Amino acid sequence: VQLQASGGGLVQSGGSLRLSCTPSFPLGSYAIGWFRQAPGEDRELVASMIGGGHIDYAASVKGRFTISRSVAENTLSLQMNSLKPEDTGRYYCRIGQYWGQGTQVTVSS
Questions:
Q1: Taking Cα atoms as reference points, which of 79, 40, 73 lies closest to residue 57?
Q2: 3-class DSSP state for residue 85?
Q3: Dihedral of the CA atoms 98, 92, 76, 31 (nearest 10)?
């Protein structure tokens, strides 16, 4: 089982990034989510999609981030707009019980 995450990088404050995560198995209707962990901090939930499409966002990203899934492309994504320095961290995708290896996002002020 592998989850390949990509799309991280260095961006200026106010910029955008799109993270993608492709599993080695069919995405189907698994619960999906994106988490992030800043240095010295606990891993926190950023966005999740479960069941029939119920979506939750952390208050700090609501209105700026959008989680989505594509069964056709077998990919889950996180569109991140209006990025802030406090969004800096390592971002992890999760599909069901499986975790990706993480991709680094750094937002400069």
A1: 79
A2: helix
A3: 50
